[in-house]
Amino acid sequence: MRIDDSESTRVEIKWSQSQVHTGKALERYLRQLRKKTRGRVEIDRTAKVLPKRAKPDKHLSGFAWDSGQRGRGVIWRCRRCGRTVIAQVMGHPGEDVEALARDVLATLEDHPIDGMITWAAYGFICQVPEAFRLESQRLMAAYIELNFAERKRRIRVVRWGMASVQLARLSLKEWVEGQFGSRRDVWLRTAASQVRGHEGVVLTGHVRRRLHSTRRFFERLVRWRRPIEFAGQVWHCPESERIFGVDSIDREGQAAAVAAQVAASIPCHGD
Hints:
Elements: E1 2-4, E2 9-16, H1 22-36, E3 42-44, E4 58-66, E5 70-78, E6 84-91, H2 97-105, E7 116-121, E8 124-129, E9 133-140, E10 143-150, E11 153-160, H3 163-166, H4 172-180, E12 186-195, E13 198-207, H5 214-222, E14 229-237, E15 242-250, H6 255-264
Antiparallel strand pairs: 1-2, 2-6, 3-4, 4-5, 5-6, 7-8, 9-10, 10-11, 11-15, 12-13, 13-14, 14-15
């Protein structure tokens, strides 16, 4: 992954889940750097870029290079998750690249913190429980949708743009009912409520179950099964001119708690 400014690359991050010898990985990385700079580079393989206490669960080493542009980087292998990470920060002439590298590289994490994974796209940020994996996404100018799955549990996170246009002739509750009314997989109720300090709507319900046969119908009469819970939260943030939504399907009756947890992680107007 690279992060560029208007002139050049400023941050570069590479990682691997496979077993990697960090010394050999660093040498390969530095060979590529020499090739890129045609050998006109000075390299320090023992630079102290981050103190060990900054990453106590890592086998950590630092490196530095100077080829006109200056770079400071680290390589580590995490004792907890096993990932190997190489990351570096590049500075322009006159910049304090050492301080910049410390500030940036100290913030990097290679596994979830407190059981949550952060996802972000086009300024939209959310956190979901680490057991969930991204299943699909839709990324458009006025609409972002991320769908996560963990076995038969589901989380959907959505951001709609141009809220004033969407709500020009409808209340938020009416608009939500229109958006969710076409869903055939769930039966739901809506209730106006405060969500994240904004006008909002709370969704509750359960997954619809199809009757495939007369036999299954009678089986359900004899053996009651707990409904698969559906829950969600939607809110309108006037400051950002957007509508946000989270909904969840959960067999363990935790859909409302999961939806609330994910909703609480979404910054909607710079909070």
